[in-house]
Amino acid sequence: MAIKVFHRDSPDRYMPIISNDARLVIWPGVGANTANMNYVVLEPGEMNVPHAHSESEDTIFILEGTGSVADLDNDSVLEFTAGDAVHVP
Fold it and tell me: What's the pTM?
């Protein structure tokens, strides 16, 4: 079947290096060619390890809360809040 349905509560893999609750939902490990979609919960004060993606990009949609993301290429920090989408080329 060419079309597949995935659910965040049935992830293919958990990624504790991202956060205590990081779920890989769609990624090359389940047959995607270039796309990925993850579900991540960061608790207050919890942060992802600063890193860069040399061969991919991320788009992050904020469901609730506030936070910030560091732009490592331009040495700046951008604030975000619920309803924002953050695109990291």
Answer: 0.78
Residues 80, 86: contact at Cβ < 8 Å?
A: yes
Burial class (CB in 10 A: 0-12, 13-18, 19+), 79: exposed
- pLDDT tens digits for 36-53? 888 999 999 898 888 777
Please, what sign has the CA dihedral across residues 29, 49, 88, 43?
positive
- Mean pLDDT score across all residues of the chain: 89
Categorise residue 45: left if φ over 0, alpha if ψ from -120 to 50, beta otherwise: left
CA 67 to chain centre: 14
